[in-house]
């Protein structure tokens, strides 16, 4: 399959899908090597961006999604009489940020850092599909771990988790040990 | 604005049992203390104070924030140390102080982590504005095409005709003999059983309930016996009387007078 044909196929698939489509899926469907698919999709993405089209393609980790251009948001909301999705509350934003940086993270972890109960925020983020379950932690109680989704990347205009603003992560792996009470061995 | 660094000689426990020098800010000294990596007796407050004053000299000014932090930390340290040195009785108290200190260190670490998160939150919040302006659409609904696309041989039609013919041939229901042993019912008439029970009771006057079932050959007969006894009870022909043990009631035939009385 030649490059232009690939681009056309990818464009059609992304339009029809609406959701993010993984490179691996495009590769399997079009029977083209993943690297070639990535190159073709990137080229398509660049074309849209360069021509400042009303539709754009965004790359989210190992996949692509077709979205409307951010600059056109006002016209879109007016035409559809809708509103932009509501902003995240500050507690949800904090919870989401902690999960983004420490993922896979448990609710207990979030609460440890925030210092307040975060069950509601976690549930709300799950509902908004910004986070998803990612197995259970192998400790007593087997708590659920969470990770961010591709929707999270899109919502924050990120292409991958590596683009998160760098912060200094505090190692919470080992808790501060209790000092041994001296003299008790005697 | 930096934290003053302290250097204390030969106080840190190492794996090789030798003592090493320590270098770092005051709260690290506390952390090491809380982890028993250094002994409180080994920490020289004068050394710390000297170094702190030297540090302030170097800064050429009194940084109030560092100064106040130093004073709280150092006074804490002094308090713990005094208690440790005073007596064994006060050691327990000093330990709980260490415990509190450890907790405050954990809290401090938490706050640091949260501060980092807050920093990221402010940046991400701005980025969120970009994402909120991107609209996506739902996937195209999958329409199921009902057109039949299989290929068939002409003989399939003939086979279908054969099947119809075969089915018509079997229109008569199969003989009941085929179902012998699979299904079938052999109800035992209750009326007949009632007669039998009455006859038995007339003969013997009274009979244990269990004995009435003796000799019953089929499930249907057992059911009939049970229903017969119930029926007789209802019509006041017999009465059930508890055995002494209470587990096997007697069935007693009532004479006509007794029966009248009950009705």
Strands ordered across the widest β-sheet of chain B: 3-5-4
> What does the main sheet of chain B amount to?
3 strands, antiparallel
Q: What general form of chain A does the structure show?
A: globular
Largest interface: A-B, 52 and 40 residues
What structural category characterises the helix and strand content of chain B?
mainly alpha
Cross-sheet strand order for the largest sheet of chain A: 1-3-2
Helix content of chain A: 40-55%
SSE order of chain A, as H and E?
HEHHEEHHEHHEEH
Question: How many strand elements of chain B?
Answer: 5
Written account of the structure:
The complex is a heterodimer of chains A (186) and B (263). In chain A, α2 (23-30) crosses α3. A three-stranded antiparallel sheet of chain A has the order 1-3-2. Chain A is built from eight helices and six strands. Chain A is α+β, with helices and mostly antiparallel strands and 186 residues long. Chain A has helices at residues 3-17, 23-30, 34-50, 73-80, 90-102, 107-114, 119-127, 150-155; strands at residues 21-22, 55-60, 63-68, 105-106, 131-136, 144-148. Helices cover 45% and strands 15% of the residues of chain A. With 263 residues, chain B is mainly alpha-helical. Chain B is built from nine helices and five strands, in the order ββααααααβααββα. In chain B, the strands form two sheets. Chain B has a three-stranded antiparallel sheet with strand order 3-5-4. In chain B, strands 1-2 form a two-stranded antiparallel ribbon. In chain B, a hairpin with a 5-residue loop joins β1 and β2 (19-24). In chain B, α2 runs antiparallel to α3, α3 runs antiparallel to α4 and α6 (190-204) crosses α8. The radius of gyration of chain B is 50 Å and the shape is elongated. The model of chain B has no long low-confidence stretch (mean pLDDT 75).
